[in-house]
Specification:
The protein has 188 residues and is of the alpha+beta class. The protein contains three helices and nine strands; from the N terminus they run E-H-E-E-E-E-H-E-E-E-E-H. It is globular and about 60 Å long. It starts with 25 loop residues before the first strand and ends with a helix.
Length: 188
């Protein structure tokens, strides 16, 4: 928890897009056994950026997934969050089958591919989730999941084309639900 005073104003709905970058840099992952977590993320094939020890009571480890601009950190005395409490971390891949096979080859337990018949996002409660890849392999529509040794949950999500506001309503690369959601959002 931060003790830095923050300036705050009442939330006001504004129009327009922010004109400066705000990039997600670090996600903190709560773990019980730092060395076990380090072995797991090494087995994933992620780049070890740092392993800092500040005495017996403080340690920071940082890994970055291949191709990612965002890293994860875990360690000792870094967070009060319960180990294994992080869920829904998405790793975007261009080929879900290939990524899944590579993780299995590395000894990582990965679910079978699945998709959501709702077409926009997977339902956390499992409703509308069916086995197998999205039949048309539409972007943002196929997933597989795995967890680290503490139970922090990761999702592989197949994205072959990125979303943008100029996508046409009949674009076959996306589910109709995603297209409707984009057009509703961009139109107001």
């Amino acid at each position: 928890m931060s003790t830095i005073p923050m300036q705050s104003e009442a939330a006001v709905e504004t129009s327009g897009v922010v004109t400066f970058d705000m990039k997600l840099e670090i996600v903190i992952i709560p773990v019980t056994d730092v060395d076990r977590a380090k072995r797991f993320y090494t087995e994933l094939g992620w780049r070890l950026d740092m392993d800092f020890k500040g005495g017996d009571d403080y340690r920071v480890i940082q890994f970055t997934p291949p191709g990612s601009g965002c890293s994860i950190m875990f360690g000792k005395n870094m967070t009060a969050a319960t180990p294994g409490s992080v869920e829904g971390l998405h790793l975007v891949v261009s080929d879900l089958e290939a990524a899944r096979k590579e993780l299995l080859r590395r000894g990582i337990e990965v679910s079978e591919p699945f998709h959501d018949t709702g077409g926009v996002f997977h339902h956390a409660d499992g409703t509308r989730v069916v086995s197998g890849l999205n039949p048309q392999r539409q972007s943002y529509a196929s997933y597989a999941s795995f967890s680290d040794p503490d139970g922090n949950g990761w999702l592989l999500q197949e994205v072959t084309v990125r979303l943008s506001g100029d996508i046409k309503l009949d674009d076959p690369r996306f589910t109709s639900e995603v297209l409707k959601a984009i057009h509703t959002t961009t139109l107001g």
